[in-house]
Write a structure and sequence with these properties.
With about 230 residues, the chain is of the alpha/beta class. The protein has helices spanning about 15-30, 50-65, 90-100, 115-130, 135-140, 155-160, 175-185, 200-210, and strands spanning about 5-10, 30-40, 75-80, 105-110, 140-145, 165-170, 220-225. Strands 3-2-1-4-5-7-6 form a seven-stranded mixed β-sheet, with helices on both faces.
Length: about 230
């Protein structure tokens, strides 16, 4: 039976970095995949130059490569890098509205202890939205945390806890290649090796994660919950 999948991405490209191969695999299996990018950079942003139209066009192109339908891409407008400066009830409301509108069976979210505070607050908001005290919360049967190169592995893991995956998805072959092609669509965000946000780094991580479980390439996740 087809499942409804929701990937929460604090920033455009997080979904491809962390879940790109798995997204392509879900779609190949007939699942309905939704992508929610939660932040944007508008005119008047106090820190960054606006790039909203550019990066959203890149997201649409990347998701087309992975097979995500245009109508399944959700763009929210929390302020990029300023989510922690936004009242938490407002952040919770944005994420709650997304989760309720999709009503997913499975949800992928960033790692709770990513260095980027946007990620941390958005993960917190997803867990508020997914509380099992509500019927739609109980209908979210599985929640996984994904790793984001340049964020997940830069935290102080011996203080806060590191990313310790216990779920591995085989993405070797076409799924890995689609992921790498999709990340190349993000020209405004992509860097050359040895930067963590490079095609080479993503391929290396996939090969490493796969080698742990005797696969040629994998994406790794931490299971938050599974309701039977």
């Amino acid at each position: 039976m087809a499942k409804k999948i929701l990937v929460i991405a604090p920033h455009n490209d997080d979904e491809t970095i962390g879940v790109g191969g798995t997204i392509a695999k879900h779609i190949a299996q007939g699942d309905d995949v939704f992508i929610a990018t939660c932040t944007s950079i508008d005119e008047g942003h106090p820190v960054m130059k606006p790039n909203k139209s550019i990066i959203r066009a890149e997201t649409i192109k990347a998701m087309e490569i992975l097979g995500v339908k245009r109508e399944n891409i959700i763009f929210a407008d929390l302020p990029n890098v300023l989510v922690p400066d936004t009242a938490m009830h407002k952040v919770n409301k944005v994420i709650l509205d997304i989760v309720k509108s999709v009503a997913p069976d499975v949800m992928y979210v960033p790692f709770l202890y990513d260095l980027h505070k946007d990620h941390r607050d958005i993960v917190y908001a997803t867990q508020v939205a997914a509380r099992t005290v509500t019927e739609f919360g109980r209908n979210i049967k599985e929640i996984y945390m994904y790793e984001t190169l340049s964020e997940t592995h830069w935290n102080i893991d011996h203080v806060e806890g590191g990313f310790l995956p216990n779920v591995y998805v085989d993405i070797h072959g076409e799924y890995l290649e689609k992921k790498l092609k999709a990340i190349e669509a993000y020209q405004s965000q992509l860097y050359l090796a040895p930067n963590a946000r490079s095609v080479e780094a993503l391929r290396a991580l996939a090969v490493f994660r796969g080698s742990i479980v005797h696969m040629h390439a994998a994406e790794a996740f931490m299971l938050v919950r599974r309701l039977g």
